[in-house]
Structures are given as structure tokens and as C-alpha cells.
């Protein structure tokens, strides 16, 4: 669902020189040596728009890098380095130290050196700008426009938790579970919050799968919207079997409408959606096991256009949940 | 003069792997192929902090790329590509079109392809985040820590205009000249405004001078402060002859104190300050002529520490003007 802010990007889509991949994929790519491309991506995160003002500084440091590493993961690139721009309305030493700890912890885990950036005072709230660089063999880059009719559609991890946590924190979903036997520990928010605030970018998985995948995207804007980008770029359609979707177990207590919305349309999900030929099923299952990340086959790429999702009874869900209502856009 | 916001950056200065140059220079560098390094830099520009809310969109598009290209220029790197993150409080099509025109006009001039980025809605004012990439021969990168005792100190262009324009627009300096013979065309603001809002990054100059230069920096935080960074990184001192400083001619009508402040401490100057051996004088003069940019020898690197500036009578100016009062920091 294009917002007016998607329209802005149209002004910045002039052609790029041969050998470069411009906007419209998870990363921009350019050739840096024979057989080697640099993949790069940047995200600008603003307080109140992309995160709550009271979010923990450690998890914010983690997430501001994670959302960018997720773009590298979706291309199959290996992280090399990153830059950080940080604008703060005031200087709170312990806050900055915690932010740095969260940022470096994830950077170290992925061998992604923080090599530069800038800090400044902001007039209004926190602004965080991260740029990541990765390297990739051009023949293996997982582009959005490479899905083929007959491909299986796969998704990593479990879906829906980030949307639920967001809606509880934003006050639009009530957490009825907090009086449970285990108190807060067992609350719906406690079970889902890490997915929202501390996502694990699927970097290792993306690199391992790159040689076996046609198209891929990270579903940060929600499964339907981001899979839609693959379909549009590839000129194909898709059919999803709703019974196969890997729903986060905490969502069992929600109404069907809330669950469907969270799984199909909920954003801020740093999982990968990939398409691959049927003969890659063994490779996907093996690599998922080795990476310790569930990989679930949820449907197929079909000829034509459009995206259909079947419910438990094999009926088309209509209308599909829409409206990614998270921080973005 | 370190502000508390310079202190923030200390939290992000953990060591970087061998083969990479981390924060603390105009660009970060990392090896991408034998004999080739990628130079990269990013700046985060916020409304009210780095530019006035009513600035023209075309010049803002220009400047948001120019300040980043200036960092490439100061390393001697050749621009390759850039990313743009743009957060706007509302969508004004003609504003975005003008911003894009200003951005692309400068990008095209320097062969710097815009290959990606993101756009989003902001709650508070405009935020612009640009990342640039350039390439450079590692043996020619102009680093801050390479100044040598006996080096000449050079500066490109003319100094002081951006500070004057900023202070007139901010209301802290009165423009008495607007009643002159030529009306507004001849006003002090009219003569100085382009230096503030539409600076020309010295990319060609930096690339041509790289083979002849020891250390370089762009003086976006002001001549004294940025030359101070070279001195500190190189473990040397400097003596500047105030009579040699290339003062913008519009400053002739200012008081000596205002002029000194603008030339020595005024920021938002996208000129280069470079140090080079005495036997490079002919090369500097020739390259300056070929590039059409004045290059002026303003002093020398000396043993020891500290920075002295001599006035017209050959006396040390004490105290030196301080306090970069522009948008930054």
C-alpha cells in the first residue's frame, strides 16, 4: 500500500550507471573488483516515528544496526563495516554508553566494524542514521526481480510477534495475559517484545542461502507488502497457504483477526522471505537446521499477477489485512 | 573547542580491524581491492540545527550532498556513488522536486550516482542523511596525521563569507550595506549567501593535489579548529601569517573583530586546508590555476605544539577567536 511518502522516492529514481544497482532493492550494489560487488544500505530512524521515546538504549543501539544488517542479509551479503550518525537532544553519558554497548555487541557478532560517522545535537528527539557495507559475489546477490513461476516461497523464523508488541505498547491492543500464573514473565508483551526491540538479522542464513535462492527480501514492511514487491519486480503472482504460516506461539491467545493482521501485515519483522526452485528443498531444510533458524515453505510463485492467501478451509482470504500501522511511513 | 557532543563520539571509537581507517578523519577507509580503498563519509543534517527552516529546497539538495563530497575531497578521493535518507514532516511535491534537482545537479557534476536510500515522514522538521562513497589509491589518501615540520600550510578559496551570511540570517550581524548603489544585489548578504547555502566541494582540487600533499582536512568547523585537528593528529605546531589569509572581499566593510572571527573561527566552510613540502609550491600554484580555485600559502608547520596566528604587525593574536557558533554541535 503506497503512502504519499513512497511517492517521494520517485523523485530520486533517475537512472544509475551500468554496473550499479540503484534503489528499489534491499541494498544498492556496485562493482568494486572483478567478481565482487559492494552492497550498501542505510536507514534513518527517528524517535516517535520508528521507536518509542522510552525504549531501552541498549536495544535501540542493537536495533539501529539490526535493521540495516537485515538489508544485507536479504541480498546475501557479508557485512564489512558501518557508519553511525547520532543526533541527541541532550548528552546522557550512561544512555550513550548503553547505546554503544548494544550497537557494538551486534556489530562484533557480525564482524561489521564501526568505522565512522558523526554526532550532533538535535532540537527534537533522537535521530539515528546507520549505513552498512557488505560484499557479495554478483552472481549470488538475491534480487527482488528474480522469482520464477513454480518457485517455492519460504519464510524464516516466526511471524506476528513484533506487531503484537508494538500494538500493546502503543495502547491499541490489550495485554490480558499479565495476570497469569507466572506474572509479567508470562505476559504477551514479555513474550513478544524482543521481536520488536531486539530483532536478530538473518545474516548467516542469507549468506548460506544465496547460492540456492532466486529472489529474497526482508519483510520489515510486513509479509504481504514485501512479498508483493518481489511479485511486482518479477512479474509473477503467488499463492500462500495460511495453514503453513509459522505463527509465533504467543499469538495463540489472540482473536483470528488480530492474529491474521499481525502475521500477514504486521511490520518491523526482520525475517527473510525467499523464493527458490523446488529442487532446493533439501538444501533449505539443511541450512535452516545448521543455522538454527526455522525455514518454512508457505506457498508457491504462480503465473500471472496478484497474491492469494488460503485460509484453513482452503478459501481465499478476502479482503487481505492491510495497512502497516507501525512506526514507518 | 570540544563540546559535550564531541564527547559522545568517544563512545564509538573502539579499535577497527587492520586495513581500515576508523573515525577521526574526513572519511573512513577500507581496502576493497589491491591498491584501491573505498572512502566513505556520512553527515546527518537537521532542520534548525544545520540549516534554516526556510532555506531554498534546491540549495538544500545541493548542500546536503556538497558537505559529504567535501569529505571525499579532503581525502583526495574520487566520488563513485551516494545514498540519501530524507525525512519530511509533510509531502510538498514542488519542494521535493526542487530538492532532487539541486541534489542531482551536483551529483551529476561529480559523477556521483545516487543509488539508494529511504524516505520517511518525520514528526519534527526535515532530517537529511547522506552517505558518499569514493575510491582512492591508499598511498595517496590525505590523512590528518601526516603533516611534517617545515610543511607549508595552504588553504583553498576565500574565507569568512559563510560565517557572515549565517550571522546576518540569524540576526546576530547587521547588514548595513543593503542601501548601497546596487541595492540588494550589492548587499553583504547577497555577496556571501552562496558560500553558506551553495558551497562548491573541492573534489577535483583534492584529487589533483593528493599526490603532492602530506595532510589535509576540510575546514567545515572553521580554520583554527580543523587545522588544530591536523596538528593534534600529527603531533606538530603551526604558525599562520594573518596577512596572507585569503579574506572574502565582501568582508572589507566589517570590523576587524568580526572579520577575524569569520575568517579564523567561522564554520560551514567547504574549503581545504592542506600541508605540503616546500618543494611542492610550483605544483600547488599550477594545480590551483588549472582548477580555477585560488590556493594560498598561509603559514608553516613547526615543531612543538599549538597554533599561533600573527597580525599585520607581526604580533601574536591573543586570544584567538573561538567558538564556532554555526548550526553544528
The percent of residues in helical segments of chain A reads: 25-40%
User: Could you name the CATH topology of the largest domain in chain A?
Assistant: Phosphoribosyl-aminoimidazole Synthetase, Chain A, domain 2
How many structural domains of chain A?
2
Number of extended strands of chain A: 12
With strands numbered from the N-terminus, the spatial order across the biggest sheet of chain A is: 1-2-3-6-4-5
CATH superfamily of the largest domain in chain A: PurM-like C-terminal domain
CATH architecture of the largest domain in chain A: Alpha-Beta Complex
Terminal CA distance of chain A reads 11 Å
Low-confidence stretches of chain A: 325-329
- Gyration radius of chain A (Cα, Å) is 19 Å
- Give the class of chain A from helix and strand content and strand pairing: alpha+beta
Shape descriptor of chain A reads globular
Largest pleated sheet of chain A: 6 strands, mixed
The pLDDT mean of chain A sits at 90
Largest interface: A-B, 68 and 68 residues
Strand content of chain A: 15-25%
**Number of discrete helical segments of chain A:** 9
Look at the structure and give the CATH class of the largest domain in chain A: Alpha Beta
Order of helices and strands of chain A: HEEEHEHEEEHHHEHEHEHEE
Amino acid at each position: 500500500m503506497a503512502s504519499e511518502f513512497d511517492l517521494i522516492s520517485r523523485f530520486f529514481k533517475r537512472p544509475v550507471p551500468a554496473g550499479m544497482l540503484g534503489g528499489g532493492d534491499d541494498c544498492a550494489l556496485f562493482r568494486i573488483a572483478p567478481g565482487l560487488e559492494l552492497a550498501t544500505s542505510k536507514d534513518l530512524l527517528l524517535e516517535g516515528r520508528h521507536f518509542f521515546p522510552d525504549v531501552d538504549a541498549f536495544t535501540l543501539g542493537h536495533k539501529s544496526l539490526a535493521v540495516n544488517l537485515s538489508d544485507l542479509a536479504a541480498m546475501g551479503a557479508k557485512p564489512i563495516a558501518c557508519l553511525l550518525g547520532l543526533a541527541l537532544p541532550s548528552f546522557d553519558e550512561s544512555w550513550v554508553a548503553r547505546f554503544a554497548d548494544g550497537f557494538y555487541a551486534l556489530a562484533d557478532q557480525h564482524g561489521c566494524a564501526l568505522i565512522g560517522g558523526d554526532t550532533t545535537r538535535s532540537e527534537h528527539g533522537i535521530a539515528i542514521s546507520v549505513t552498512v557495507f557488505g560484499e557479495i559475489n554478483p552472481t549470488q546477490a538475491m534480487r527482488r526481480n528474480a522469482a520464477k513461476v513454480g518457485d517455492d516461497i519460504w519464510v524464516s523464523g516466526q511471524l506476528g510477534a513484533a506487531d503484537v508488541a508494538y500494538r500493546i505498547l502503543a495502547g491499541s491492543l490489550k495485554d490480558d495475559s499479565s495476570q497469569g500464573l507466572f506474572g509479567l514473565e508470562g505476559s504477551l508483551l514479555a513474550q513478544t517484545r524482543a521481536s520488536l526491540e531486539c530483532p536478530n538479522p538473518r545474516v548467516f542464513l542469507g549468506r548460506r542461502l544465496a547460492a540456492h535462492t532466486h529472489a529474497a527480501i526482508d519483510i520489515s514492511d510486513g509479509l504481504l507488502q514485501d512479498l508483493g514487491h518481489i511479485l511486482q519486480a518479477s512479474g509473477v503472482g503467488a499463492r500462500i497457504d495460511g495453514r503453513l504460516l509459522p505463527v509465533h506461539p504467543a499469538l495463540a491467545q489472540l482473536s483470528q483477526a488480530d492474529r491474521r493482521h499481525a502475521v500477514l501485515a504486521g511490520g518491523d519483522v526482520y525475517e527473510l522471505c525467499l523464493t527458490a526452485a523446488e529442487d532446493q528443498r533439501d538444501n533449505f531444510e539443511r541450512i535452516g537446521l545448521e543455522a538454527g533458524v526455522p525455514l518454512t515453505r508457505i506457498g508457491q510463485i504462480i503465473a500471472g499477477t496478484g497474491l492469494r492467501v488460503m485460509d484453513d478451509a482452503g478459501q481465499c482470504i478476502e479482503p487481505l489485512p492491510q495497512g502497516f500501522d507501525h512506526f514507518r511511513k
